[in-house]
Write a structure and sequence with these properties.
CATH architecture of the largest domain: Alpha-Beta Complex
Shape: globular
Strand order of the largest sheet: 10-9-6-7-8-11-12
Number of domains: 2
Number of strands: 12
Number of helices: 6
Largest sheet: 7 strands, mixed
Strand content: 15-25%
Mean pLDDT: 86
Helix content: 40-55%
Distance between the termini: 46 Å
Order of helices and strands: EEEHHEEHHEEEHEEEEH
Structural class: alpha+beta
């Protein structure tokens, strides 16, 4: 077997062929509904925060004049940019949190200790994951591995391949956001169809084991929700439809209409 490699932009290469990543393929799905609601709330919260003054004996003082001063200083367009920018940095903050929790969960899966100095936000989630892992009865066989499907023409990185307390093979993906979105189903379906797997840092790829269960682990500051995801032919076909739509969309870039 040859080696699977992953580029900085999450393209996967195997035996001279390069394949797009699953998460990139699934960006073609429309998430504007929940994302628009989230962005609108972030803007509203930014406006409220801009009126917060100092704490006094009765609690936080509201100072609406702070908005007037901001409007005078930067103008209407400046206020709009200041308020709407919140969703951008909140999104980056969420991505950074997710990356850190994934990395620390990987350490726990490998039986390693956690580093000192974790922020309270990260520590709460990682502690919840640690507690869940001890109670789950899962025996993690592989934590973080590259996948490729030469037949399907894609690659990816899975979080966990384990045996549950009943000996069933479980493919699991960790999510740390506020919610779990529908593309998680297609992501798991794609990973389960891959023909080859290679633990990160291993010297070679080997055939992907058969999967009995698919699970999303939704890790929050208050616990871990274990979401069983039934995967069927419709889910697999839907993933391939996303691949076709992504290829079509890429072919239209730069085309004048």
């Amino acid at each position: 077997m040859s080696l699977i490699t992953r580029s900085i932009d999450h393209a996967y290469s195997y035996e001279g062929q390069t394949y797009p990543g699953v998460t990139g393929i699934l960006k073609v799905l429309d998430k504007s509904g929940p994302l628009m609601s989230w962005a609108a709330r972030q803007t509203a919260e930014a406006f409220i925060d801009s009126m917060r003054g100092e704490m006094d004996g009765s609690g936080r003082k509201w100072e609406p004049e702070r908005v007037i001063r901001l409007l005078t200083d930067v103008g209407p367009e400046g206020v709009v940019k200041a308020m709407t920018a919140r969703s951008a940095w909140k999104n980056d903050e969420a991505k950074d949190l997710g990356t850190e929790v994934h990395d620390l969960a990987d350490r726990l899966n490998r039986g390693m200790t956690l580093p000192e100095g974790l922020t309270p936000t990260v520590k709460a989630r990682v502690q919840c994951y640690h507690d869940w892992l001890l109670a789950s009865g899962w025996n993690v066989k592989i934590s973080e591995a590259y996948l490729v499907s030469p037949k399907g023409g894609y690659g990816g990185t899975l979080d966990i391949l384990a045996r549950d307390r009943d000996g069933r093979a479980v493919l699991a993906d960790i999510k740390t956001g506020k919610g779990v979105y529908r593309e998680s189903v297609l992501q798991l379906a794609a990973y389960g169809m891959a023909e080859l797997i290679q633990p990160v840092g291993a010297a070679t790829a080997f055939p992907m084991p058969a999967v009995d269960r698919y699970v999303v682990l939704h890790v929050t500051a208050t616990g871990v929700r274990e979401i069983e995801v039934p995967i069927g032919d419709a889910d697999r076909q839907a993933f391939y439809a996303c691949m076709n739509l992504t290829e079509w969309s890429n072919s239209q870039k730069g085309r004048a209409l």
